[in-house]
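In this section we walk through a basic example: taking a raw amino acid sequence and producing a predicted 3D structure, encoded as discrete structure tokens. The instruction is simple. Fold the sequence below.
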Amino acid sequence: MVTRGFTGKGRTGGEDVRIPPGQHLVDDFPVLSAGPTPKVTPEQWSFTLKVGPKPVKKWAWDEFNALPQTKMTRGIHCVTAWSKLNTAWEGVLIDNILADAGIGEPPTPYMLAHSFDGYSTNVPVKDLTNGKAMVALRYEGKPLSPDHGGLARLLVPHLYFWKSAKWINGLQFTQKDEPGFWELRGYHIYGDPWREQRYTHD
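The resulting token sequence is shown next.
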């Protein structure tokens, strides 16, 4: 399922240093998804934190929105070679989710993000904590549209954007770095855009 045609344009000199190698800048916000957009209402939405198979805490929509809110403006970089700078998000830092669940020291070094459509992606805990990532609820001051992951999506802006799982409904601590949907289909296990880690052997 990997499309190796997405290899970027390379660097020719003079590019914005905020854009990783092989990427090109876009002004719009392309919509790319592995499947159809799920329709989830606030009444249906919930978010569950697990350690292995064991649920630690579950939040309803209103409860999750009552957690501390943080704004974050970052560049985002898609594996299909587009980058968008200065994107403005607002949501709940992963640090604040863990704190509300009473988790101080993370019990394992890895996590899986799970979504309402069955999608999953793996991210090391160190890439989610210390202010690096959030569950985003708003983009450019407005609620997230369904096409861009609303009601809520993971935002891990320093990794390729497939790691920022749309329609997120939970995070799960795992003992091993378990591959998710795209990682099982040939994408890189980590996905650092600055090292062009697009595919398994990059």
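Looking at the output, two observations stand out. DSSP finds two helices and eleven strands in the chain. Confidence is low (pLDDT under 50) at residues 1-14. In the next section we compare this with other chains.
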